[in-house]
Design brief:
glycoprotein; alpha/beta; globular; eight-stranded mixed sheet; two-stranded antiparallel ribbon; 12 helices; about 325 residues
Length: about 325
């Protein structure tokens, strides 16, 4: 279980690096006739701007990907293009799942992980998607354990300050979540992610009490990302961790968030707090009020207790968007199952 959790954390970081690799050339207007995985064509006509959403299809949790996509698609009229990233053996499964469901009309592209590209930069063998190159200036990245209750256009319209390459949710941003953080003993400062016993961390000059942020929802400006060479910076801190073990993995989860906390310290914009209500997966016993969750735009079951497993909380909100696997391979885990 611990190994699987570690691999999932690594896959999260690699997906974030996939977003890094979506290098901006110019805003691309796709013709409305463009279908799934077709070759991109330039259109001489002014078309509706696409909203690119990058999301993972991880082995063992593809139902999460489908539910996330279902919730986004059902709550917007925007022109969304999904980039679904997964290992070679997951891509055919997720494709059939989508094409044999009510999601068959969505626009999507699949991107396959290429193993061993990051050898020497992570502590576990893992995979990284080939560098996809859609021509978008702005990109949304989402973890798979989310559902969207608002219009994704609203999140896409998040304003980034000049010089900022990304917007995240600060872990201290919403008073309504503070009680949840305290009750389950979560870390919401840099101390929970970086090992301040190490000189390299102390040399950063970042106070350990600085509020952390969560990279499970990202709005990225790829022009700034490319100009600031942020992929190289992230990879550098991944490699340094291999050499020096800089992250407090036992406290904060380590590899997924820590490099981003370093690279984006003081250099990121913030997402509307209601667009990232998180911690739903930290405890099977602690719940938010139903009224609060109804007002939320995006729900995130970060933590151990996922809504497709048992035990977990607020599963009804997630199941509203779940589409059963036509192959029968992915099943919900429930007390009576």
């Amino acid at each position: 279980m611990a190994l699987l959790k570690k691999i999932n954390q690594i896959l999260l970081l690699l997906l974030i690096l996939t977003v890094c690799a979506i290098l901006y050339n110019k805003v691309h207007k796709a013709p409305s006739a463009l279908k799934n995985d077709a070759v991109d064509l330039e259109s001489p006509m002014e078309m509706e701007e696409e909203i690119p959403v990058v999301i993972c299809a991880a082995a063992g949790r593809m139902g999460a990907t489908v539910a996330a996509i279902s919730s986004i698609y059902s709550n917007t009229e925007a022109n969304v293009l999904f980039y679904i990233v997964g290992l070679k053996n997951t891509i055919p499964h997720i494709r059939k799942w989508i094409e044999n469901s009510k999601l068959k009309e969505i626009k999507f592209k699949t991107v396959e992980f290429n193993p061993m590209v990051l050898k020497g930069k992570i502590r576990q063998d893992a995979s990284r998607p080939e560098l996809l190159q859609p021509k978008h200036e702005k990109v949304i990245y989402l973890d798979d354990d989310i559902i969207v209750q608002g219009d994704i256009q609203e999140l896409y319209d998040t304003k980034l300050a000049p010089g900022h390459a990304a917007a995240f949710s600060d872990d201290c941003d919403l008073p309504s979540t503070h009680e949840m953080v305290r009750s389950v003993g979560m870390q919401n400062t840099y101390m929970g992610f970086l090992d301040y016993r190490k000189q390299a961390i102390r040399d950063l000059g970042i106070s350990p009490s600085t509020c952390s942020f969560n990279p499970g929802v990202i709005v990225a400006n790829m022009t700034e990302w490319k100009n600031q060479r942020l992929t190289k910076q992230l990879e550098k801190w991944m490699q340094r961790n291999v050499e020096e073990n800089l992250y407090s993995s036992t406290l904060g989860g380590g590899v997924a968030t820590s490099p981003m906390l370093i690279v984006f310290h003081g250099k990121h914009s913030t997402i509307n707090p209601m667009w990232h209500i998180r911690h739903l997966g930290w405890s099977p016993d602690t719940r938010y009020s139903e009224h609060f969750l109804q007002e939320a735009k995006l729900l995130h079951w970060n933590g151990r207790y996922k809504p497709w497993d048992y035990p977990s909380v607020h599963t009804d909100l997630w199941e509203n968007w779940f589409i059963p696997d036509p192959s029968g391979k992915f099943k919900l885990t429930r007390p009576d199952s």
